[in-house]
Amino acid sequence: MSAPLSDILRPASIDDMVGQAHLIGKGKLLRNIIDSGTLPNMIFYGPSGVGKTTLAKILASSSNKKLFKLNATTASTADIKDIIAQIDTFTAPNGILLYLDEIQYFSKKQQQTILEFIENGKITLIASTTENPSFYIYNAILSRSTIFEFKLVGVEEIKKALVRVVGFIEKSEGITVSIADEVLAYIATLAAGDVRRAINFLELCNLSSHSENNVKTISMETASQLNFSGNIRYDSAGDEHYDTLSAFQKSMRGSDPDAAVYYLARLLASGDLISACRRLMVCACEDVGLAYPQIMPIVKSCVDIAMQVGLPEARIPLADAVILVCLAPKSNAAYNAINEATADIASGKVFPFPRHLQNKHYDGADVKNKGQFYLYPHEFENHWVAQQYLPNELTGKRYYIPDENKTEQAFSAYWRNIKKPD
Questions:
Q1: Using alpha carbons only, what angle is made at residue 331 by residues 327 and 334, rounded to the nearest 5 degrees?
Q2: What phi and psi values does residue 99 have, to the nearest 5 degrees?
Q3: pTM
Q4: Which of 11, 128, 228, 400 has the fewest CB atoms lying closer than 10 Å?
Q5: CA within 13 Å, CB half, 142
Q6: From edge to edge, which strands make up the β-sheet containing 96-101?
Q7: What per-residue confidence (pLDDT) applies to 337?
């Protein structure tokens, strides 16, 4: 069984890599560190298929240390101990370089096993992970390592890798490959920033295309068959999940219907109907709120319809609701009010209730003026009467500050007129 082209054509030098110019471009921090010849402990963090493993292997091959490679998905504590046993032996006179792929799958105890040797410099660690290091990597290792974040690779950079693949196919098969630039761009775009995925796509296209007169044409018709929802990069518990939801809500809050609908489509294409509905309802309450309070039952109704009809039709009522949230006036006054009140409670400002607000119960012997003395607002003009509601210690405190929209300003004007001093 032959290896996939993405492995066969893995770059052997930094200059052959595509993407990550912010890290390995001339004059950039990681490039300067590499050129210095001294490798610190490093953690490569980012999505799959963007060069983390490739760069780690390039660095490892250029090191004068004894190289060991482990993949945390299959390695055990015994594997780590076998490596530690090589320290200070004639097989590793200059120390050990440990390349640990998918470090997030190591338990805290497994990570602690190598900590002592990272501290004394006998093991230099290069680890890669697709998950946020702050959540998955032991703090003591984080504090002794430099984190480099890898980004999704742009279309033009991926196309460079695909051109190399075309050249390799032509040489290995002894044919001419005809592929239009628009087809290369389509495959590069479909890969969603993943170079390995793009190469795999091109390899599939090559395998499904036939040559005629020693020329193999890879057409758009062939490439378009790759377009299925599984190409979408999404992890229901990872950074892509939370980044998509964050972009979705921030686009609604920012009143950009085009961006909001785009992120809604990404969520739904990944099958994440529940998260889309939840974030939509939160945004209606948090970001529109009292500026247009009628929006809350409207959005809830759209969500109910979406949940009843399911996908793919659920996209229609949700799109209605998302665009409505984008176009509605915005207010976070209620959000700010409950946050400040919650902060006061958390800081210990939990004081006795005013007596007239308490439930009716027996007054103790220490109460001189017995009775509740609650004034029932509906018995007074305009259904309002002045009386204290906050605890004595918080009298005069304001949590709710009306925002500058016509709904809240109208309410404020109404109550200013009612509550004006005689």
A1: 140
A2: -100, 115
A3: 0.61
A4: 228
A5: 12
A6: 66-71, 96-101, 123-129, 42-45, 146-149
A7: 94
